[in-house]
Amino acid sequence: MPAPGENLRINGDRLWDSLMDMAKIGPGVAGGNNRQTLTDADGEGRALFKQWCDDAGCTMGVDSMGNMFARREGTDPDALPVYVGSHLDTQPTGGKYDGVLGVLGGLEVIRSLNDMGIKTKHPIVVTNWTNEEGTRFAPAMLASGVFAGVHTQDWAEDRTDAQGKRFGDELDRIGWRGDEPVGARKMHAFFELHIEQGPILEAEGKDIGVVTHGQGLAWIQVTITGKDAHTGSTPMPMRKNAGLGMARILEKVDEIAWSHKPHAVGAAGHIDVYPNSRNVIPGKVVFTVDFRSPDLAVIQDMEKRLYEEGEKIAADMGLTIEFEKVGGFDPVAFDDGCVSAIRGAAERLGYSHMNIISGAGHDACWINQVAPTAMVMCPCVDGLSHNEAEEISKEWATAGADVLLHAVVETAEIVS
Asked: Is the dihedral of CA 375, 328, 32, 45 positive or negative?
């Protein structure tokens, strides 16, 4: 199929304005966003996205997990659509670009094709996946996981947040449950634009990351139980300090990750300490260890060593310990053809680029199991993400969306 001409570009100013308009919904306290999934703010963001899609002449479909699909028709009614998108939900202290750039970049592809009067053989569908972040309802990438058959819908709908509210009930409450069966749609290909969420592209001075692989991930929730006791009157030899047990295990987590350098990583980001009082020795802690690597064998080794080291530390301290795997996926190798389309687009447009492994999980990691998939990344300042200070430039956003446009249009096939 012929490649699009290098003069085919998106409207960078319009894309940037859309990003800023979406950021007004669910504002954070420090310049970013708090638009957690299935909150009222999420519902408001969805409504704005639908309005923009309607204005662009798309038809909107919604499935029973709340995934949104805005379709621009192709000339061949039998041709499978090319899908593009990401997510609109954010972390509690999230930035304005994580996920949102991929959704609105996809919308900008359609707007630009409309401006230029370009038709494609395959339909193009812009997608907003529900609950990519997993911060309110674990695990991450929940609805795309149901779409790909990784999770059952009943299980997903029974996930609860910190207040005990069910995913399914909250989806109904905000009014964004559709009637389409989840996963019934068939895809010709799927492309996802995303900020890197790491420092490599900026440090290397590259405009574009051509994502060839995604790291695998294991989330292990650890519960340590000791005994609540007075911090001042309990002798040191008589303490069963669950907090100290956690500290020793987290040192092991760091040690285990370092043993598989340079690509493996490990830490605990979610920690609950009980009773969390200044003068009470913690009797219970619950924390989640996050291990990642592009090598499945490495992830398996890190998990195994966590269990072994954790059991030993707990036994030596007179504590009890429980492990529960609450999330995870194997490393991903993206489709060679889709990856080549992204790389070719960057070269054709004159953008500097490099191959990159994504350190974060993305909806594309699940969709890769059911359709040819690839990702394009743009830099973010200092690699900072999942933080309200997350920042990119208009030029970076434009370059990423230009590459997305070319890869999508080449795959969807321009009709002359």
From this structure: positive
Structure tokens at 126: 């812009």
One pLDDT digit (tens) per residue for the chain, 416 residues? 567 778 899 999 999 999 999 999 999 999 999 999 999 999 999 999 999 999 999 999 999 999 999 999 999 989 999 999 999 999 999 999 999 999 999 999 999 999 999 999 999 999 999 999 999 999 999 999 999 999 999 999 999 999 999 999 999 999 999 999 999 999 999 999 999 999 999 999 999 999 999 999 899 999 999 999 999 999 999 999 999 999 999 999 999 999 999 889 999 989 999 999 999 999 999 999 999 999 999 999 999 999 999 999 999 999 999 999 988 889 999 999 999 999 999 999 999 999 999 988 899 999 999 999 999 999 999 999 999 999 999 999 999 999 999 999 999 999 96
Token pair recorded at residue 146: 């149901």
Q: For residue 338, which of 318, 308, 368 has the smallest C-alpha distance?
A: 368
What is 245-301 written as a DSSP string?
HHHHHHHHHHHHHHTTTTT-EEEEEEEEEES--TTEE-SEEEEEEEEEES-HHHHHH
